[in-house]
Amino acid sequence: MIEATQPSNSPPVVTKMINPAALELYRQELQSRQDPDAPVVIVCCGTGCQAAGSVEVVDKFKEVLTGTGWSGKVVPMIKPTGCHGFCSRGPLVIIQPQDLFYQRVTVDDVEDIVNKTILNNEVIKKLQYKPANSKEVIPKAGDIPYYAKQTRLVLKNIGKVDPTEINDSILHGSYSALAKALTRMTPEQVIDEVANSKLRGRGGAGFPTGLKWESCAKQEGTRFVICNADEGDPGAFMDRSLLEGDPHSVLEGMAICAYAVGSNRGYMYVRAEYPLAVKTLTSAIRQAEALGLLGENIMGTGFDFKVTISTGAGAFICGESSALMASLEGKVGRPRPKYIRSVEKGFRDSPSNLNNVETYANIPDIVNRGGDWYKSYGTERSAGTKVFALTGNVYNIGLVEVPMGISLMEIVYGIGGGVPNKRALKGVQTGGPSGGCIPIPHKIPDINVGYGKLAEAGSIMGSGGMIVMDEDTCMIEVSRYFVNFLVEESCGQCTPCREGLIRMREILNRITQGEGREGDVELLDEIGRFTNNFSLCGLGTSAANPVLSTIRYFREEYDAHIRDKKCPAGVCKPLFHYEIDPETCTGCGLCKSKCPVKAIAGEKKKTHVIDQSLCIKCMECYKNCKFRSVKIM
Amino acid sequence: MKVLNIVLNGKAVTAKAGQTILELARENGVFIPTLCDSPALEAAAMCRLCTVQVIEGKWPKFVTACNFPLRRDAEVVTDSPEVRHGRKLIIELLMARCPTSPELQRLAADYNCDLERFSPLNDDCVVCGLCTRACEAVTGRTLSLAGRGTAIHVDTAFQKASTFCIGCGACVQICPVKKIAMEDVDGERRIILHGKIASRVQLPKCTSCGKYFGPVIDLKQVMERMGEHLIPPPNAAVCPDCSRRNLALKLGKRYFEQYGVFEDEGQADAG
Amino acid sequence: MSGTACACRENCNEIEIEIDYNLLDRIIRDDYGGNKEAMIMMMQAIQRVYRFLPEAAVKYLSQVIEVPLTKIYEVATFYASFSLEPKGKYILSVCTGTACHLRGSGGMVEHISKRMGITPGRTTPDMKLTLETVNCVGACAVAPVVVIDEKYYPKADIATLNDFMDRLNAE
Fold it and tell me: CB contact, 8 Å: C73 with chain A?
């Protein structure tokens, strides 16, 4: 925050922007007060880093830098930012202007960083980043392959701006696109530019954004602009990161949309499980309204746009647009059984334009730089970039933004750093609970990530969840997990989804318990196709995807469970046991020491043996054996 | 009114724009099975039994006949093998919920259902939502679809016997599997749902014959909702039977007494 | 906030809670203008005060905003974040998002369930602990995550949980 750390150089006195030119003058004024050589300490305060202790690190920095011991000339600015996306290395600290990247920083490291790095320009080796399987450290944030191989358009400000301080966002160009749209473009031109960019909805279905705006603009009467921030896919957190890290890009995108479709009321439906995002957004809206960038008579142009935050109450189905709108009206979020689009009759039965967070966040740059610029990224049918939440069995867990059409192997290996613990890659699950597993590299060598290609492979883009699965993942158990999730999260109103899911879970439960029967796979397939064809809403018509895609690609695993009563991955406990291979066991004793139930016996340097009657199959011996001598049988 | 050309099961017919497939089918004598549809209520498309295939462009898609509005020329197939197969599954799945329902048993026979495939999950309800929608249309104060996810079920607030119910019995009447009961016991009307008392409504005692009779307490409110507030509510102190009898007696007295033929109630009833 | 077992009827496990109707009025009328559309937010605000939705408070809400009680009950049972049962002194949420699941969060839920004798969503009889599961808190990099009273415990394991439960039992 500028005023907190640079008391001698307070920001300009602020009144409302009376016209769009005032915004640019204000930005220049802020710029002139920046000292390019002043040290800046950036601390990532996304949920991942906060979970790892970054708030305490910020507090410690404040304590040390404002204490009497500080002897530097310029007081460094401490900038807590939104999620940088490299969550597996958090808490992250970046020292500017050197661009020094420190990872896994604890409170105890703070004094060292101040005394050595900031005061004496000395690098602290132990905090530097070393890629997996490499001995060379990479000192600068910009050189880390995880970042260098990404194309950060929508995430460009995240990790650079302080999301709690609007001045910092304005310095980085926020609201300049809104100013441009309001003064130099007609609503039709804005829609044309968005249509020209070929941006498609980033929430899952991939509907062309320009087309949606155009249909909404054609309607009569009061129109609403709604932002779907009910990010419910387990394992996806790109929307959270945007809301926490760069809230103004989303708000600006919504305001531009409102101008284009002729609305002056916006609603933001945020998941209540994201308290930090709600807090950041609330403050961002207040600050933008104070500057006349949102609210009434925006930048003196006569255009009004008021945004209200509404918090969800924990229902995955509310990500479905008609369910979300019902929930906004204070009702139960069950999808509407009407064959009518929400751009015609949505919230309060009025025309409503609903897009997701990432879609709106893409808008300001499309307006500023043009649709041609945007579609120069990505492919013909899937333009631009997409943010993925890369998680699971991969070294670098976090958010990655890449151009559409990129190879999935490149995401997993080039950016993600590959699969840890010398395990083999078995597949990548995309699209969350309604998605499917792509069996790279063994059954499909690779795939270019785009809407069409993923659908061909039996999965979906979804909101961008990407879960890497290694050879120790049981695909039947993964299907069971997703089906179980949907059993709880379906709205339950229509028969195929409700009863179909209950039966699929019943069958998958018995297969993973070792009680699968001949014909179960065929029955799963039959119910799955039926559920996908006969259900009422988008959740139901994709609910069986995890089951159908694993049957398609991992049929032999189902057969092993049902016929041989074996779980080849060693996950379903009734269907496997561990044995130590006498050929390769060196008798190192590590497994014996790790076993929590003392089920392993053996003398040093002699083959160890597992007592099956004691073993609880907790995986400790299997995970820890350096020679892979513990075998799944 | 725009007229559409529809090919319904291979036969050329015309439809009014906005008409649902179900309405069109009924007009043309084509039977489509339904469970959760009632002409008195807005379609909810929950049971999905009326699913048919419609081709408006290139590809056939599955839609529910009860609420799919025809907006342009199209081809509709109401009984394709795919449609029949889906319906068969719906019935099999619902039979596991409610095996004693004659309506479902009849459908199961029509669609050659295999009733061994799914183990019973008997809870005597097919969650068609008709009772809750009927309740909402009358007062909206007693029944709703409570519960998370697939545990959705018909319930009263806090699972307690409702004190807001007016005992109209619409839920009992409309239930397609006939699993909601109503009984008048000890001066109160009870709605029995899932074997539990879902509501208790005090019945008025007839001041004339002394019997308890159907609740009329809120009839005034119901009439107001129906826009018939001009009709005076019936006398709440006397049961409809007595009320009719008293009226007959009064009329009989007025018109027949002069001829000397009016002697007692029995004759008035016969006349 | 203290609660005592309700003595109204047999088999009644309700907790008697003193309801502050002035506070409810402030939430319903002042903060949200008595607007039906804001009902879910009002319910969230009421739940923040009592840590659950007391029946009496829900009834009062029903009267003020003129939404039938059964409709509020429908909403309260539909959304995962509402509880109609009082919560314990501590709330332990285990993230069961995909990343956490793959790293054994299911086993952790099982472990707590077994040791404390409660299934997810329920509270121990001594009202000390409520066990919950949450679909994804978005901290997948540090999976599995456990949240105890809004504090995140990254890379949690059975030992973390045992520590917590030991302290709880010692209290």
Answer: no
Return the DSSP state at A114: I
| CB burial readout A273-290, b (16+ within 10 A) else e | bbebbbebbeebbebbbe
Please list the residues that pair with A226 across neighbouring strands.
A267, A354
> Considering only residues 217 to 246 of chain B, which have any Cβ-Cβ distance to chain A shorter than 8 Å?
none
Q: What is the ipTM of this complex?
A: 0.89
Would the CA dihedral through A325, C28, C45, B152 be positive or negative? negative
Structure tokens at A363: 């808008």
Tokens of residue A159, six digits:
């990790």
**B residues 139..168 contacting C (CB < 8 A):** 139-148, 155-158, 162, 164
Residues sharing a CB contact under 8 Å with residue A332, sequence separation 6 or more, in sequence order: A326, A491, B145, C74, C75, C78
Can you tell me which residue has the tokens 């049981």? A474
The residues, ordered by sequence, that sit 6+ positions from C65 with a Cβ below 8 Å of its Cβ are C28, C34, C35, C36, C39, C42
Residue B44 CA to residue B193 CA, distance in Å, equals 21
Report in angstroms the alpha-carbon separations of C77 from A362, B147, C70, C83: 36, 5, 10, 8
Chain B hits for C119, CB-CB cut-off 8 Å, are none
Residue whose C-alpha is closest to residue C126's, from C164, C84, C88: C88
Query: In chain B, count of helices (H) and strands (E)?
Result: 8, 10
Positive or negative: CA dihedral C121, C122, C127, C132 = negative
pTM for this model (two decimals): 0.90
At A103, list the tokens. 């990872």
**Peptide bond before A97: cis, by omega within 30 degrees of 0?**
yes
pLDDT tens across the length of chain C (171 residues) = 334 444 444 444 555 678 999 999 999 999 999 999 999 999 999 999 999 999 999 999 999 999 999 999 999 999 999 999 998 999 999 999 888 888 888 888 988 999 999 999 899 999 999 999 988 887 888 888 999 988 888 888 888 888 899 999 888
> Which residue in C76, C35, C78, C33 sits closest to C52, CA to CA?
C76
Q: How far is CA A16 from CA A9, A24, A164, A296, in A?
A: 21, 13, 19, 11
Alpha-carbon distance of A476 to B232, in angstroms, equals 66
Tell me: the pLDDT tens digits for A74-132?
778 899 998 888 888 889 999 988 889 999 999 999 999 988 888 888 999 999 998 87
Neighbours of chain B (3+ CB pairs under 8 A): A, C
Of A298, A180, B159, the residue nearest C13 (C-alpha): B159
CA dist., res. A415 & res. A449, Å (int): 14
**What is the four-CA torsion angle of B205, B211, B213, B218, rounded to 10 degrees?**
-10
Q: If 0-12 CB within 10 Å is exposed, 13-18 middle and 19+ buried, where does residue B141 land?
A: buried
| CA A138 to each of CA A129, A390, A505: distance values in angstroms, whole numbers, following the listed order | 6, 21, 47
Tokens of A472: 């120790």
